Amino acid sequence: MSFTIHDACVPPMVRMLSNLSKIIDKAVAQAKAEDIPLSTLLEARLAPDMHPFPRQIQIASDAAKGAAARLSGVEAPSMPDTETTIPELQERISKTIAFLKSVPADKFAGAEDREIVLKFPNGEFRFTGRDFLTNFALPNFFFHVTTAYGLLRSKGITIGKMDFLGGA
What is the pTM of this model? Predict the structure, then answer.
């Protein structure tokens, strides 16, 4: 059996979202042990013009479910970006993982050549499924997961590379 678009999309996103959930659990435990207000984590941003921690989680979720939906031709679940607490963010991650796992692998058949069009206020991008996944969806997803990780590290949370990668 050959490596597929599904293999390149769903398993790495599920793994990274699962790792992110575990990282958040570690962050909460450390914050409680060290009397760090959770608001410090929730309000974290690397620069004034960057999104804070909750928005990084929301965008990573949107990137994952949007990629799977576009490549498989199924409808992505609507999530209104209203999460403001750690439990709400964890629930969003859980729902995103459940959606990714629910999309049958066979729905991705032919996705590498499927046209994907992303429309933005200032224009649109056209991709083949292959280029969309490798040049847009995965980089965007990993950017926001990595940024969420970096925000927690910047607030003194003791997590490391193996937390991010999730071990072998």
Answer: 0.95
Domain ranges of the chain: 5-160
The stretch 138-165 carries a mean pLDDT of 96
By the 8 A CB rule, do 155 and 44 touch?
yes
For 5-160, CATH gives: 1.20.120.450
Burial class (CB in 10 A: 0-12, 13-18, 19+), 47: exposed
Q: Give the closest residue to 116 by CA, choosing from 50, 66, 152, 82.
A: 66
Q: Which residues contact 161 (CB under 8 A, 6 or more apart)?
A: none
DSSP state of 34: T
| Confidence class for position 30, pLDDT limits 50, 70, 90 | very high
Alpha-carbon distance of 88 to 23, in angstroms, equals 15
Q: 166: closest CA among 7, 60, 18, 56?
A: 18
Angle between helices 138-154 and 53-72 (to 10 degrees): 160
Instruction: State the residue for tokens 């962050």.
Output: 27
Residue 107 reports pLDDT greater than 70? yes
